[in-house]
Design goal:
- This protein has about 325 residues and is mainly α.
- It folds into two domains: about 40 residues; about 250 residues, Orthogonal Bundle (MetI-like fold).
- The protein contains 13 helices and two strands; from the N terminus they run ααββααααααααααα.
- Helix 5 packs across helix 6 and helix 5 runs parallel beside helix 10.
Length: about 325
Amino acid sequence: MSNESAPIDLRGDRGFQDLRERIYQVAFLACAVISVLTTVGIVLSLAVPAVGFFQNVSLGEFLLGTQFSPAIRPKVFGVLPLVFGTLLITAGAGAVALPFGLLTATYLAEYAPPGRRAVLKPMLEVLAGVPTVVYGYFALVYVTPLLNAIPGLELGTFNALSASIIMGVMIIPMVSSISEDAMSAVPDSLREASYGLGATKFDVSTGVVIPSAASGIASSFVLALSRAIGETMIVVVAAGQTARFPGDVPGLLTSFFKSTQTMTSAIIQLGLSDLSGGTTAYRALFAIGLTLFVMTLVLNVVSDLLVQHYQEDYD
C-alpha cells in the first residue's frame, strides 16, 4: 500500500471567477474612458467656439486689453479686467482661508482630544455643503453692512471685500480637512523623538508636524484657491458686475472696496443676456471659459509639482 497521496488541485474551477474579474475590469475601464472623454468634450466645447472668436478678435487684444464691454459700442473684449477681478477676490479669499484653515487643522490634528475632534471636524465640513448662493446673500445682506459700520471704511453695495471674506470662509473646510489628514499621517515616532529631546507641544506642531506634512498642506492651499477661482454665485450676488482694471497701485489697493467682475460672473452675464448665438460677443463667453480652464489647469499642475517636491517618504 503506497503512502503517497494524490496531488491536491488548488486551482479549482475559476471559470466564473475569471469572467467576473473581467467584467469588473471592463466596467472600471469604461468609467475611466468616460471620465477622459468628458474632459475632452468640455475642452472641445470651449475651444471650437473660441476659435471662431479669435478669428474676429486678436489674441493680443483679448489677453492684453484693459476694457471689457461686449454689449456697448465700441465693443471691446479685453480679458485683463476679468482676470484681475478673479485674482483679486481669490487672493482675498486665500488671505482668510489659508491661515484659519491651517490653524484649525493644527488644532484638530495635535491638540483636540479624539472625542472633540469627532464632533468639530464634521461640523466644520458642513460649511462645504452650504449652497454658494446662500453665502453670496449672506455677504450682501450682512457682511457688507457690518464692514460699513467700521469707521473710515466705505464700501459700495457690491464690493470685492465682502465677497472675498465669505469665499474664504467657504473654502476653509477644504484647507483644514486636507491639511489635517496630512498632519495625522505624520508618524508618531517623529513626535515622540521630539518630545524626548525636550520639545514642547507648540515646538512639535510647528517645527516637526507642519514641515513633515508640507506636501499635503501645499496641495490643500492650491486646491482651495482653484475652488475659489471657479466660484460663481458668491461673486455674482456680492461682488457686482463692473469690470475694472486699476491703472496704478492706489487703484489696486482700493479695488477691494468697489464693485468688480470675475470671469465666472462675466460668463453668467453673457449667458443670460439677449446676445444672438454665433456673434462675437456670444463667442467671447467660450473664450473666457477657456481662459478660466487653463488657469485652473495650471493650478492643478502646480499642486502636483508641489506634492512631488515636498513629499516625505517614511518607509
